[in-house]
Design a protein that fits this description.
Elements lengths: L13 E6 L4 E6 L5 E11 L4 E5 L2 E7 L5 H5 L5 E4 L2 E7 L5 E5 L3 E8 L4 H11 L5 E13 L5 E17 L13 H7 L5 H14 L5 H12 L3
Parallel strand pairs: 5-11, 6-11
Antiparallel strand pairs: 1-10, 2-3, 3-9, 4-5, 6-7, 8-9, 10-11
Length: about 230
């Protein structure tokens, strides 16, 4: 199987999740005599490999140190969300969300309104450990593959209008990449009909029930008469 089909930069947003690393939610003064709930944690850890899966099989992915340098310098507009959706609880544009890259990864500090019902729910869920992962949405600007296409290094990402989120159960990194269905289907043209059938059969069994991305690839492949 020709793995060089991986050597394209995805055009769609991607998401990655990690378990909490020192994440906490605590009361803090807001500077006006009141208080905020301050969240701190990491949305991404750099220089640590994790397993991913695409339509060609498994590979290792590493977010390299410095991947966030440019987007943070450009003052990316990023919201703090729950499960990548719903009302914005903090935002870099307003100064209630602050992002920085340090030796661990992408550090998140958010000032949350304790009167907001969604924040109250977040506080309760975190105290019960019902929420225990963080995730971030991003676009890849620059990447590098190893010569055998078994490792993808993410070198530069764009966070503008992406997000950082606390998630109740983050998607497995092996299935969290959001691929463009048409691009993926066109890449499948490089495979023989037998290779495509074997690939779809294997993925359908491994990820049963078939994830939306796989169903889209199958539908697009059919539309292109692959």
């Amino acid at each position: 199987m020709d793995l060089s089909a991986r050597n394209t930069t995805p055009a769609a947003i991607e998401r990655r999740s990690i378990p909490f690393r020192g994440d906490e939610l605590r009361s803090a003064p807001d500077g006006t005599g009141g208080e905020v709930l301050r969240f701190e944690g990491y949305a991404s850890v750099t220089e640590v490999g994790y397993e991913m899966q695409d339509w060609l099989g498994p590979f290792t992915e590493v977010v390299r140190a410095g991947a966030f340098t440019r987007t943070l310098a450009e003052n990316a507009d990023v919201p703090f969300l729950l499960n990548h959706a719903g009302m914005t609880l903090a935002r870099t544009k307003s100064g209630t969300l602050r992002l920085a890259e340090d030796s661990t990864g992408l550090h998140v500090e958010a000032d949350l309104d304790p009167a907001n019902p969604d924040v109250q729910g977040l506080r309760s869920a975190m105290s019960r450990r019902d929420l225990d992962e963080m995730s971030f949405g991003f676009w890849v600007r620059s990447q590098q593959w190893s010569p055998d296409y078994s490792q993808r290094d993410i070198l530069d990402v764009d966070l503008d209008h992406g997000d950082v989120s606390v998630v109740n159960y983050g998607a497995n990194p092996a299935t969290s990449a959001q691929m463009n269905a048409r691009d993926a289907a066109q890449d499948l043209q490089r495979l023989t009909a037998d290779e495509r059938r074997a690939l779809f059969d294997r993925l359908a069994v491994e990820f049963a029930p078939a994830p939306p991305g796989l169903r889209l690839w199958q539908a697009q492949a059919a539309a292109l008469d692959l």
